[in-house]
Design brief:
InterPro entries: HAD-like_sf (IPR036412), HAD-SF_hydro_IA (IPR006439), HAD_2 (IPR041492), HAD_sf (IPR023214), PGP-like_dom2 (IPR023198)
Protein name: HAD family phosphatase
Strand order of the largest sheet: 3-2-1-4-5-6
Order of helices and strands: EHHHHHEHEHEHEEH
Radius of gyration: 17 Å
Pfam family, one: HAD_2
Oligomer: single chain
Structural class: alpha/beta
Shape: globular
Largest sheet: 6 strands, parallel
Number of strands: 6
Distance between the termini: 8 Å
Strand content: 5-15%
């Protein structure tokens, strides 16, 4: 196994609840109503897609850049107090590091959001960090994971990816990586080159190495 690559939101940290609060706040400002069925449409997607979706569902005539500012401000305010890590997340990061395996963080969030989250979970866990600011195409396009494996100089086929969203799984699979899906808001089915587990507590280094073998 050449490397292990982790998604962030909903996988390492419990930020989907925070995103829901912020999205609800923004859509209310736009004159609409936000529910879980709307959030599910955006899980693991890009910043631009989220803004476009909110504009389409509300019909508001507001500049996309302003909506982006509202989202960013709301997240930064809430993340300033820290974020809850998902069960088993820190333990798995330490276990992979103890094996001497390189680790990457690959997220569709902007770097400023990732930086806020890393204040809680620790930047020191990651050899490489890839955010939405570092790529042209975000998940489900393979570019985020191909960028990370390129920076690590490793073979994607010999890398394990942990993801919580269908978009993230699609990105990792298209990049040629082996995938462990830990669904958060949207169900994910097992498939060739992919296993599905209920929690990171069900993942250890032996399981990840087994994917490559």
């Amino acid at each position: 196994m050449d490397a292990v690559l982790f998604d962030m939101d909903g996988l390492l940290v419990d930020t989907e609840k925070v995103w829901f609060e912020v999205e609800s706040e923004v859509v209310t400002r736009l004159g609409g109503t936000w529910g879980p069925e709307h959030q599910e449409q955006l899980v693991g997607g890009s910043w631009e897609r989220s803004v476009a979706y909110m504009l389409a569902m509300t019909g508001a005539e507001v500049a996309p850049s302003l909506i982006g500012e509202w989202l960013l401000d709301g997240m930064e305010r809430r993340l300033a107090d820290g974020v809850v890590t998902m069960p088993g997340a820190l333990e798995l990061l330490r276990a992979v590091a103890d094996e001497g395996v390189p680790i990457a963080l690959v997220t569709s969030s902007l770097r400023v959001i990732a930086d806020s989250v890393l204040k809680t979970i620790g930047r020191e866990h990651f050899d490489v960090i890839v955010t939405a600011d570092d790529v042209t195409w975000t998940k489900p396009h393979p570019e985020p994971y191909l960028t990370a494996t390129g920076l690590l100089s490793v073979d994607p086929a010999r890398c394990a990816v942990l993801e919580d969203s269908p978009n993230g799984v699609a990105s990792a699979s298209a990049a040629g990586c082996q995938v462990v899906a830990v669904p958060s808001l949207v169900a994910i089915d097992p498939a060739p080159g992919r296993i599905v587990v209920p929690s990171l507590r069900h993942v250890d280094v032996a399981l990840l190495r087994g994917l490559i073998a």
